[in-house]
Write a structure and sequence with these properties.
29% helix; three-stranded antiparallel β-sheet; two-stranded antiparallel ribbon; alpha+beta
């Protein structure tokens, strides 16, 4: 059995991992888009790290390759898994056809903005 340790120990380890990742990414050139992966020979769809600019940290995207084209897809996550306008614990919208949800992305807004300048 593996002992994870206290919350403080886990936080220290997470910070050390972040530091190591930043140092590693500064040494390795990471493609800025999925198109660059395609130019390097990638053909299998999947999750890849990109870094559109050195001013933002690398982040994970989905790459779809089709012939000479490659799509860079920044994923989004919906908080609600239902398309109903209300649930038991949340009243929802009053107007017919209204739906509210919280959407989050697997990249920060600065990463998305930098990435969009390369598309």
């Amino acid at each position: 059995m593996i002992s994870i340790g206290s919350d403080a120990e886990v936080l220290v380890l997470a910070e050390k991992i972040d530091t190591i990742e930043r140092e590693l990414y500064s040494l390795v050139e990471i493609p800025s888009t999925c198109e660059e992966y395609a130019k390097k020979g990638a053909t299998k769809n999947g999750r890849f790290k990109i870094q559109p600019s050195l001013t933002v940290p690398p982040f994970s995207v989905l790459c779809e390759f089709s012939g000479q084209e490659a799509k860079t897809i920044v994923e989004k996550y919906n908080e609600k898994s239902t398309q109903k306008t209300s649930t038991v614990d949340q009243p929802g919208c009053l107007e017919a056809g209204c739906f509210t949800d919280t959407v989050s992305y697997n990249a920060t807004m600065s990463q998305i903005k930098v990435n969009s300048t390369y598309l």
